[in-house]
Amino acid sequence: MADAARAAILPYFRQSNLETQNKHQSGFDPVTAADRAAESAMRDVLSLHRPEDGIWGEEFGESTGDSGRTWVLDPIDGTRGFISGTPTWGVLIALTEGEGPVLGLIDQPYIGERFVGVGGVAHATGPAGEIPLRTRSNPSLDQAILFTTFPEVGTKEEAAAFRAVSDRVKLTRYGMDCYAYALLAAGQVDLVIEAGLNAYDIQAPIAVIEAAGGLVTDWQGGPAHHGGRVLAAANADIHAAAVEILSRF
């Protein structure tokens, strides 16, 4: 599926004539032909190899299956980055059985990096070959690197909660889309905090990060696979420190 999505997306990337549509009346939520082509390509693969499984995709919605498995697809997570030419977007694929994902994949087609987590084992493939993924062991919030996508994060209350954590860390970076979660799994950063996510935004990152030794919860420390307010952390100590702050809001 990831290979099919790569082939569908790359002809559109950094093309000056790419048309963009806005999916919502309020705000800017872009979609392109590349998003739709990638999800169609992944659905074609599933139709051939896993016709009994359900599918939940961002662009074409849900279709039920009878196997008890559902594939959760985000063909381009970070379409704003995609249309801006930055390589922070990615293809997200998760497999869920019951509650939460059991397999996750984050793919960055332009760079050629792929991050996979399943069964407690995570690895990445790319220009450097295949490497195991392991999250950082740094327990100290004041030495942490924090990522999010939008500086405003969400509501005013959510923005205030984010700033309360950001004020305590060493470095905060913005605009990373799903690549932030991949870097957390790869041991490069300590925290990702976001709000307003959908299930297809977070299920693949959950599986990859948990397989690499990290944690992904909501801001109260509960399950996050349905989306909403999400906290991804490299280890239990730094997760607890962030939850202690976020849960006040």
UniProtKB/TrEMBL annotation:
<keyword id="KW-0460">Magnesium</keyword>
<dbReference type="InterPro" id="IPR000760">
    <property type="entry name" value="Inositol_monophosphatase-like"/>
</dbReference>
<protein>
    <recommendedName>
        <fullName>Histidinol-phosphatase</fullName>
        <ecNumber>3.1.3.15</ecNumber>
    </recommendedName>
</protein>
<keyword id="KW-0479">Metal-binding</keyword>
<keyword id="KW-0368">Histidine biosynthesis</keyword>
<feature type="binding site">
    <location>
        <position position="201"/>
    </location>
    <ligand>
        <name>Mg(2+)</name>
    </ligand>
</feature>
<dbReference type="GO" id="GO:0046872">
    <property type="term" value="F:metal ion binding"/>
</dbReference>
<comment type="pathway">
    <text>Amino-acid biosynthesis; L-histidine biosynthesis; L-histidine from 5-phospho-alpha-D-ribose 1-diphosphate: step 8/9.</text>
</comment>
<dbReference type="Pfam" id="PF00459">
    <property type="entry name" value="Inositol_P"/>
</dbReference>
<dbReference type="InterPro" id="IPR020583">
    <property type="entry name" value="Inositol_monoP_metal-BS"/>
</dbReference>
<dbReference type="InterPro" id="IPR051090">
    <property type="entry name" value="Inositol_monoP_superfamily"/>
</dbReference>
<keyword id="KW-0028">Amino-acid biosynthesis</keyword>
<feature type="binding site">
    <location>
        <position position="76"/>
    </location>
    <ligand>
        <name>Mg(2+)</name>
    </ligand>
</feature>
<dbReference type="GO" id="GO:0000105">
    <property type="term" value="P:L-histidine biosynthetic process"/>
</dbReference>
<feature type="binding site">
    <location>
        <position position="74"/>
    </location>
    <ligand>
        <name>Mg(2+)</name>
    </ligand>
</feature>
<dbReference type="GO" id="GO:0004401">
    <property type="term" value="F:histidinol-phosphatase activity"/>
</dbReference>
<feature type="binding site">
    <location>
        <position position="77"/>
    </location>
    <ligand>
        <name>Mg(2+)</name>
    </ligand>
</feature>
<feature type="binding site">
    <location>
        <position position="58"/>
    </location>
    <ligand>
        <name>Mg(2+)</name>
    </ligand>
</feature>
<dbReference type="InterPro" id="IPR011809">
    <property type="entry name" value="His_9_proposed"/>
</dbReference>
<comment type="similarity">
    <text>Belongs to the inositol monophosphatase superfamily.</text>
</comment>
<keyword id="KW-0378">Hydrolase</keyword>
